[in-house]
Amino acid sequence: MHPSSFLSALAILLPLASARPADPLAPRFVGGSCAFHITQHQKNEKGVGVDYQYDLRIFDSIQDQIGGVNGLTIPDVQTRSVNSQLPATIDITSGITDADPITFSYAGQHWTT
To answer: What string of H, E and C letters represents the secondary structure of the chain?
Structure first.
């Protein structure tokens, strides 16, 4: 975007934005299809203990990051919940072996890898 176009758009939006205060209870994400990216770190390798560790990034429908966690340790067949700006948590259930799927749950919906 050309700088002058950006400034013009900003000049138009600023009076509208300041006309009313922000609602502190409004969601801080753009609704629609959210997504997440998970990295599973192998057990007993590179400083990881006997349980799998996970890094999770949660994105809203315009791909803004709205939550996540690094180094989340989950024992075999256990579930951990991850908070974000979404209304419900994303629950992750770890398997026992590398061949086992990771299970995800959100607001009554379930997926596996």
So the answer is: CCHHHHHHHHHHHHHHHHCCCCCCCCCCCCCCCCEEEEEEECCCCCCCCCCEEEEEEEECCCCCEEEEEEEEEECCCCEEEECECCCCCEEEECCCCCCCCCEEEECCEEEEC
